[in-house]
Hints:
Layout: E1 7-14, E2 17-24, H1 39-59, H2 63-81, H3 88-95, H4 104-125, H5 132-142, H6 181-192, H7 201-215, H8 222-236, H9 248-253, H10 255-268, H11 271-308, H12 314-326, E3 329-331, H13 332-339, H14 343-355, E4 359-361, E5 370-373, H15 374-381
Antiparallel strand pairs: 1-2, 3-5, 4-5
Amino acid sequence: MKRGETGRYEVTAVGAETVRAFVPNPLPPSPPLALTGGLQPLLEAAAFALGRLDGVSTLLPDKSLFLYAYVRKEAVLSSQIEGTQSSLSDLLLFELDEAPGVPLDDVVEVSNYVAALEHGLARVRGGFPLSNRLIREIHGVLLARGRGSGKDPGEFRRSQNWIGGSRPGNAAFVPPPHTAVPECMAALERFVHAEGDGLPVLLRAGLAQVQFETIHPFLDGNGRVGRLLITFLLCQAGVLGEPLLYLSLYLKQNRPTYYELLDRVRRDGDWETWLAFFLEGVKQVADGAVSTAERLGEMFRIDRARVEESGRRAGSALRVHQALKARPIQSMPGVRDTTGLSFPAVSSAMDLLVELGIARELTGKRRNRLFVYDRYLAILNEGTEAIT
């Protein structure tokens, strides 16, 4: 449905030039969303896929293992959209204090994303409302170190920003003046917590994400915070018990369409076409996460069976295998600390895993060796190839 422009323009001065900054109307859309026709079946399919994902998460033998890796994959993907070149391996090495040749700013940025996600989830699970205060907290963690740390972490912007172009005057899009940001964000917070309007939480999340992108309330980090907002909304609403839905891979693969649909919402008020794209993404990503969990579970089962058949070395090797499941790149001291085994026992067990083709030594050194669970990391790495 084409409603016309979903906001108004305010003329504002930025330096020596005058620009038209877009101030969005409060949500929900007016006239209301048209759910009949194509949108309703997409909503049902996305909700079913989410339910399946939530069900699978309860059946995982150790959810914490999968969550650890899955959250880090999302951190890499979301940061790649913003231009970083770090890989999942770079992040895992950084967390081991072993990151040779990795651009430090890039990997710090990805590490910050993990910290911001974990902080937000802990607050939501602790009963803290998904509010502007929490959004600012998350942003503060996201920009705590490295690039962006000088751009007012945890504070709504106090100057004009823009998207695309070298200055506001030639930008692809100019968000609201900074003076309008508090009012716009207060309206968004009211919409997120609205009750009794009959709006399904998936549609609320899709609408809120676009509105946040349009307001662009921070000087940096808006895209990453906006993508996190989707996950936090679904977890707070109880739709997901675990943070297993992330749209970064879908948005990375469909970036031109994503940006075009944002423009169509602002220009034409075509929320339905955006929501159809969003719901298709939710379904694809949920189905993909279920498939990944199932593939990893089967791989772990097969590898465990192979270790069990190895005789008297199996006991220690199973404990080392479990450590690699928890952290797919490991140092020998790290495995020793995790398993409680002696260093000779860890060394012998790791040698067995290498012989079985389960683990591989990364460094080629005799000392300070690192080992990787190759096939585990290969599955996690799917989709994290550099953007071309």
